[in-house]
Write a structure and sequence with these properties.
Radius of gyration: 18 Å
Number of domains: 1
Distance between the termini: 23 Å
Shape: globular
Strand content: 15-25%
Strand order of the largest sheet: 1-4-3-2-5
Number of helices: 4
Structural class: alpha/beta
Helix content: 40-55%
Number of strands: 5
């Protein structure tokens, strides 16, 4: 299951890179742009080529696996965007809510601490967080 999660994260980046490469094969028209400013496509390609910035702790991996929580490429991409939003606001420890999934994330370390699905939440109380991101 852990390998599937890691493959899902890497797969989302690989799919995006393939789409960008296909778009680059089409003729590009750049008019009125200074030569020293990189093209948007180049910047995007460089960003997407980087591996997923959010990692799963061993505890979070066990929770996802034990609870059979679906976590694929789409969820990995949404998690990356949510953590980036939290980081831009100065968050340190965030609760990220994605559909029926709640993830406690160390924003500074970019690590998912734990994952809880709707069925497993008992008291619906999360402590030691300073922000919530709805994704």
């Amino acid at each position: 299951m852990v390998d599937k999660i890691q493959q899902a994260i890497l797969s989302s980046n690989a799919d995006a890179i393939r789409q960008i490469q296909q778009a680059q094969r089409k003729p590009q028209q750049r008019s009125g742009t200074p030569a020293d400013i990189p093209a948007f496509e180049d910047v995007l390609k460089n960003q997407l080529a980087q591996p997923s910035s959010v990692k799963l702790s061993a505890h979070a991996q066990r929770r996802i696996q034990a609870r059979n929580i679906p976590f694929g490429t789409e969820e990995a991409a949404r998690l990356d965007r949510a953590v980036e939003k939290a980081a831009n606001k100065g968050a340190r420890e965030s609760l990220i809510l994605m559909d029926d999934l709640a993830l406690v994330v160390s924003v500074k370390n970019r690590v998912v601490i734990t994952a809880v699905d709707a069925k497993s939440r008992k008291e619906d109380v999360f402590t030691n967080i300073d922000s919530v991101v709805l994704s």
